[in-house]
Amino acid sequence: MTEPVAPKWSWKSFILEHIKSIPGDLRGLAVGALLTGLAVYLWPDQVQSTYAIPVNADGYATPLAGLLRNAARENPSTTYRTDPEDLAKAWVCEAASISGDGAHQLLVQYVDLYKDCFSLDEKSKTEIAVRPNRQSGVMRHDARGWFCKCNNSNQSQPK
């Protein structure tokens, strides 16, 4: 006499049997809840930030002050500053467009875009300073202030 052989057990068949035993309406509810949970989990946490930089009549802007202010609002536990202080009023004589996942990311992208003019010094996770890049020759300073990418051909002297 041969002994009866137990059927093979698997998770897949176990789960399928339990799903089949659930009435159709509840099955649809469970699938809908699962898909909704997955969509919420995968949805981006933040909408991309944009920041409009006002310019004067000649088309010159002082973007750093606003970028630093927005980053500080977004991350109150982090100190954002310029070194020296008057660098926050630096004139940039060139137009640019940037976008990012938050105000801090906008600041980082802006400084990276103008790395010939600025450098970012992250002393710690709670202290970030923007400094002038004096190595490139593109950033200059005089009695009126700091000037990034401003020269005789594109500058009627910002006011």
What is the secondary structure topology, with strand pairs?
Blueprint: H1 11-21, H2 24-42, H3 64-74, E1 79-82, E2 91-92, H4 103-113, E3 118-124, E4 127-132, E5 139-142, E6 145-148
Parallel strand pairs: 1-4, 2-6
Antiparallel strand pairs: 3-4, 5-6
Helix pairs in contact: 3-4
Short structural summary:
The protein is an alpha/beta fold and 159 residues long. The chain has helices spanning 11-21, 24-42, 64-74, 103-113, and strands at residues 79-82, 91-92, 118-124, 127-132, 139-142, 145-148.
Largest sheet, in brief, is:
3 strands, mixed
Radius of gyration, whole Å: 29 Å
- Structural class call reads alpha/beta
- β content, as a range? 15-25%
Number of domains: 2
Overall shape: it is elongated
**What is the overall number of helices?**
4
The strand order across the widest sheet is 1-4-3
Number of β-strand runs? 6
Distance between the termini: 105 Å
As residue ranges, the low-confidence spans are none
Helix/strand order: HHHEEHEEEE
Instruction: Estimate the helix proportion, in percent.
Output: 25-40%
Rounded mean pLDDT is: 80
